[in-house]
Amino acid sequence: MPEVCEPTERTLILSEHPRNDAPKVYVGGRTATVLRFEKDCAPERTSMLGWEGHFEPLICSDRFVLLYPHRDLTPSDRFLLRVTLTDGTELPFIVTARQQPYGDRQVDQQVNVFADREGYDAVLASLYRALESERKLREENERYRKEENSIDHAYATLLANGAVKAAPFRLEKTVTLKDGDMPITVKLFSGKGKAAVLVNLTNAYSDEPWRLGEARLTTDLTSRTARPFALRMNPSEIIPGASGTLAVVADKSAFVSQEGLVDLTLEIFRGDGLRQVAVLLERRLIR
Q: For a tag on the chain, would you pick the N or C end, based on fewer CB atoms within 10 A?
């Protein structure tokens, strides 16, 4: 019995195929082969000549045509398959077996049929975008998983939820600010090997919810070398007239530079890009 090779997926671009030669589809006994088109097919106008006794009845649904031979074919076996799309386009194919050395049998598991390169490239670009989105989602999920296990994020959650006494920090300074009609209170905490900031904001400036755009922790406002930190906000957005809290916890390692410990600047930007808060985290907060 010939060795069976793993079925394959193949792309067929009709504009790159000779017009006077119908493209070939390679099938194998008791193996389903699917043709996938850019547009829906018309079942009543899709057929294969001489299929009786060699194939299961043709299945045509939406953009797919399925072939299932009862047994292996030889390269000399040729069946004319005519697929008609719903826009009236007729596409002929030759269904046969691939000539293989050493008795191997290679079968088309799926043939993706495109009219031209432009359509293929569009689908390929869409695939790459989907893969990139999936990669970013995996990375984001991994980041969230690490955050859930991070002690700094746990401390930030306690502060944002009002459980200040449960966190190992000591209040060092309270600053009251006002950005237009928006009252802001900033509390600075010192800790053993860590520093924390708790920002309370009241949305009195707009009829729209206040949303966090970005938070930055940098060595200074000139070089803006970013440093790691944990952040939690409660609630996730602040409705008009309501208040919310935003907590930031930074480890001692964020303050370390080649010159030793340095001061850091925390900046809070709202959703439209406007900087709402800028506060200095002095190195002395690290105990």
A: N
* Structural domain span for residue 171: 151-285
Q: Taking CA 136 as the corner, what is the angle to CA 130 and CA 142, rounded to the nearest 5 degrees?
A: 135
Query: Residue 190 is inside which H or E element, if any?
Result: strand 182-191
- Tell me how many domains the chain contains: 2
Considering the entire predicted model, what is its pTM? 0.51
Structure tokens belonging to residue 241: 């007239």
DSSP 2-46: PPBPPPEEEEEEGGGS-TTSPPEEE--TT--EEEE-SS-B-GGG-
β-pair partners for 279: 266
- Segment 138-190, tens digit of pLDDT: 876 666 666 566 899 999 999 999 999 999 999 999 999 877 668 899 999 99
Q: Do residues 162 and 240 both lie within one domain?
A: yes
Q: What is the spatial distance between Cα 125 and Cα 59, in angstroms, rounded to a whole number? A: 29
| pLDDT tens digits, one per residue of 220-232 | 655 667 899 999 9
